[in-house]
Amino acid sequence: MTRRRIKRETIIDLLKESHGYLSGTEMASLLGVTRAAVWKAIGLLKKDGYVIEALPAKGYLLVKSPDLCIADIKRIVSPETKKIGNDLFFYDSIPSTNMVAMELASKGCPDGTVVISDAQTAGKGRLGRSWISPPGKNLYLSIILRPALSPRDATALTLLAAVACTSAIRSATSLAASIKWPNDLIVGQRKLGGILTEIKADIDHIIYAIVGIGINVNLNAEDMPEEIKAIATSIFVETGGHFSRSDLAGAILLEFDKWYGHLLRKGKKVVADEWLTLSSTIGKRVRAAAVNQTFEGVAEGIDDDGLLILKLNDGTYHKMSAGDVSIVRTKS
Ligand code: BT5
């Protein structure tokens, strides 16, 4: 029998489809490999966190899958994706998925390559802030894009990511997640996730963009460090249930794939229109802090470039390209 590498996804599929134990001999014959090769592949899956029971007379039984693993994400994404997630890199712990994505992009990896890590030791927010990234709980991923867009269109990629994440979270969890301009995923007033878009560009075109996404999934309130306790939340905190990070990552990548296609074919407006339906900023009285100045007024909308249009108290309009927005509570 010729030696063949067995794809982990194939073994998992077989184990998931079998009702009860599946013998090593049967699996070997279905896959056209030796029993020793099956045994070796099962050993690797166990290392990845799969709990697989092995009984000499019966064979193998899949007892539990890890809640984040590359094989499960591939199984969701591969049959449907046009671009996003065709190439996936998975790590246990790295400084930052955006940093690793930058390195891969500079070496020429294709449009749509995705980097996922179980933990980050130097997760990044905007403006040098840090992103709390403990292991085993949350999602940290970065998508490498090579769109034929100009640098001023990069904000559309942040809007697109917010749309993809919010839609995926809403359908996977039925939580009323929404988007707070420019890059926050929120539930109520609390931050569930954030997006960090970084680009390498010439004067008139993007060479590559890295869209980083961090979402708190199964994080307990008690495990949140003091600095984010009052402002952050997680899917677990909001719903009381644990969610599969692979399922959520898969759903986000498929939504991203769909909206990336729309952006490239139909333009920025389609994405901005969808963003408006999912945002909780528009129509509210807000305080918007830019680097050196703070504005207060009503958030009236976003323009085609994703800039926030504020109607200030004196009736004039101001457009913001970046900043931090907080909703101003009006006295009743
Ligand atoms: C963001 O920045 O919200 C962008 C976060 C992007 C993180 C992802 S994870 C995968 C990829 N790789 C990276 O290295 N980064 C991306 P900003 O709007 O600047 O918000 C940062 C602020 O959010 C911090 O100063 C904290 O106040 C708060 N924060 C930090 N960690 C948090 C967490 N896990 N959950 C909620 N809030 C957090």
Q: How are the SSEs placed, and which strands pair?
A:
Layout (H helix, E strand, L loop, with lengths): L7 H10 L6 H8 L3 H13 L3 E5 L3 E6 L5 H8 L10 E7 L2 H10 L7 E7 L18 E7 L8 H20 L4 E3 L3 E4 L2 E12 L4 E10 L10 H4 L5 H5 L5 H22 L1 H11 L6 E5 L4 E9 L5 E5 L4 E4 L3 E4 L5
Parallel strand pairs: 3-4
Antiparallel strand pairs: 1-2, 4-5, 5-9, 6-7, 7-8, 8-9, 10-11, 10-14, 11-12, 12-13
Helix pairs in contact: 2-3, 4-9, 6-9, 6-10, 9-10
The chain binds biotinyl-5-AMP.
The site of biotinyl-5-AMP has 26 residues, from α5, β5, β8 and β9.
Please identify the top-level CATH class of the largest domain. Alpha Beta
Question: In whole angstroms, how far apart are the ends?
Answer: 78 Å
How much helix, percentage-wise, in residues? 25-40%
Total separate domains: 3
Which keywords apply here?
single chain, alpha+beta, Arc Repressor Mutant, subunit A, BirA Bifunctional Protein, domain 2, seven-stranded mixed beta sheet, five-stranded antiparallel beta sheet, 14 strands, binds biotinyl-5-AMP
In short:
The protein has helices at residues 8-17, 24-31, 35-47, 70-77, 97-106, 154-173, 226-229, 235-239, 245-266, 268-278; strands at residues 51-55, 59-64, 88-94, 114-120, 139-145, 178-180, 184-187, 190-201, 206-215, 285-289, 294-302, 308-312, 317-320, 324-327. The protein contains 10 helices and 14 strands. Biotinyl-5-AMP (BT5) is lined by residues 96-98, 120, 123-127, 129, 131-132, 140-142, 183, 191, 194-196, 212-214, 216, 228, 232.
